[in-house]
Amino acid sequence: MNILVTGGAGYIGSHVVIELLDSGYDVTVLDDLSLGFEENVDRRAEFIEGNILNEQDLETALSIQPDAVIHLGAWKAAGESMIYPEKYTYNNIVATLKLLIAMSKAGVSKIIFSSTAAVYGYPEYLPVDELHRIDPINYYGYTKMAIEENLKWYSKLKGISFVSLRYFNAAGYDAQSRVVKMERNSQNLLPIVMEIASGKRDILEIFGSDYDTPDGTCIRDYIHVSDLASAHLKAYNFLNQCGDNLIVNLGTGDGHSVLDVVKKTVEVTKHQIPYKFVDRRVGDPESLTTSFSLAKKVLNWSPVHSELRYIIGTMWNILQPKTNLLHPEIESS
Ligand SMILES: NC(=O)c1ccc[n+]([C@@H]2O[C@H](COP(=O)([O-])OP(=O)(O)OC[C@H]3O[C@@H](n4cnc5c(N)ncnc54)[C@H](O)[C@@H]3O)[C@@H](O)[C@H]2O)c1
Asked: How many domains does the chain fold into?
């Protein structure tokens, strides 16, 4: 069984590749290394450096006749998508449409797509489930919504079956440190807090201190990247067994505030995290958590690595490999 993973040199993709290889699949990665690292692609996988927007690169990658495509290659910075939407039109919408066209030409009929909680916009109720209204408030979220709509059409018209995985906040790293390089320019809270703990940044800016949450800071649902990776495998099995389409949320159902993350990081790393409060950011909901009951029911998936302490421990392990390889928090999960 060969699986093509686009964006397999990226943060989540490199973990998905490890999960597939460990489970006995052959894996081919297509990544242009614009944000990923070749060092993060497990050597057991075949690596093709190429761009999804380039039809020749797509043809080369699909010539292996993969059993399925796992499509992670995209941009993901919501703020940037509001300033430079055209970048996201090309790389997220046009590139995925080219991929779908190339797949139908090559006779590849299964795709697992990386979608996002950003398709929901402001939550009307919590935890957000798959029946929640779709109303993205940034262009990034819109690009994912647009692809989900196209997946439905390509399924109807071209027989491509799909699972769209709507990730909440991915965090953590492979506990065996097989992914060696941390994400480039991450805008997410946990990588920033880790950079402060390791002395690469000075201070954390917390956007808003007066939200209607127990400590006044925003709450998010952090899901360990290895849990996300295992969901891709289950999604692949689902496509093989059922052949139906599926759109499903991936999160833990638990929320952690910004200050919870800061406190837990100090506890795990034994380093201070200086912070200051600044104005709220436009478009930040105060709380965003999901229910994983559909994923449990349909995919038989539930998160097992997503305790906050463990997430932070696995990130710290990458930054401080010598001192923390035997970190007790990591071994406990
Ligand atoms: N990280 C999260 O919390 C999160 C949450 C929801 C959804 N997602 C989605 O998951 C996917 C992976 O996210 P990530 O966090 O691993 O990001 P990432 O930036 O680390 O990985 C994306 C990878 O895709 C590659 N890539 C981008 N455009 C490409 C193109 N045109 N051709 C070939 N390769 C290309 C990059 O080089 C990079 O290796 C994205 O689609 C993102 O929208 C991520």
From this structure: 2
Q: Which residues line ligand 1 (CB under 6 A)?
A: 6-7, 9-13, 30-36, 51-53, 72-74, 76, 91, 95, 114, 116, 167, 169-170, 183
Unique residue bearing structure tokens 């998010």: 220
Q: Model confidence over 129-170: pLDDT tens digits?
A: 999 999 999 999 999 999 999 999 999 999 999 999 999 999
Same domain, 264 and 311: yes
Q: Is the same domain home to 210 and 127?
A: no
| Beta-sheet strand order (sheet of 287-288) | 256-257, 219-220, 287-288
Q: Which residue has the tokens 């919501």?
A: 78
Between the CA of 109 and the centroid of ligand 1 the distance, in Å, is: 22
User: Do residues 230 and 20 make contact, with C-beta atoms less than 8 angstroms apart?
Assistant: no
Residue 80 reports pLDDT greater than 50: yes
CATH code for position 66: 3.40.50.720
Rg value, the chain, Cα: 19
- Among the listed residues 25, 140, 222, 236, the single catalytic one is 140
Tokens 């969901």 correspond to: 231
Structural domain range at position 167: 2-171+222-250
CATH number of the domain residue 296 falls in: 3.90.25.10
Q: How far apart are CA 164 and CA 224, in angstroms?
A: 18
Same domain, 149 and 210: no
Q: What is the pLDDT of residues 44-76, one digit of tens each?
A: 999 999 999 999 999 999 999 999 999 999 999
Q: Has residue 332 got a pLDDT over 50?
A: no
Predicted TM-score (pTM) of this structure: 0.96
- Write out the two tokens for 257: 């505030």
pLDDT at 13: 98
Q: How big is the CA angle at 284 (ends 279 and 289), to the nearest 5 degrees?
A: 135
11 is catalytic: no
